[in-house]
User: Fold this.
Amino acid sequence: MKVSVVVGNPKPQSRTRTVAEALVPALLTPGSYDLEVIELADYASELFEWSSERLKAVTTVVADSDLVIFATPTYKASYTGLLKAFLDRYGTDGLQGVVAIPVFTGGDLTHSLAPQTTLLPLLAELGAVVPGRGLYFVIDDLPRLDEFIAEAVARYAKVFASLTAVAGAVVEVEAADVSGE
Assistant:
């Protein structure tokens, strides 16, 4: 399984990255995935260069992932412009088939609905599947990160179990039947 963590914090090696990276090994069986962490801060100068080969490669890695954690600090009740500029590189359905989990960090719970009200609709527009609510972590609670991650994993595990049951019962349909041809 291919897993990516996309970090929209303008500061590399941020606490937002720490939170997002902690989710992956808690959620997935060790050895079942390859992980790539993408710090958008490393690509900031190229985000608006549509011909950038480095960014084309990164957008392909993300679009080809099975699971992507999109992590961002909360800026003005939303995600960072860095993350928005990156996601603008995808067309409608550019993340089709990707399971995406939005992870926000913030100073307090004031904007705890931001993952659902700001990033989730954009991810859905891009064709990603978001399995339940996004995560919002109060950054001063880092000492209890393990507890927070364990609670989140328990919620996601229930959703993934339900999706597995449904997927097992889905009728096989040929691609031509789906498109109406």
Observations:
- The mean pLDDT is 94.
- Residues 4 and 95 are 13 Å apart (CA to CA).
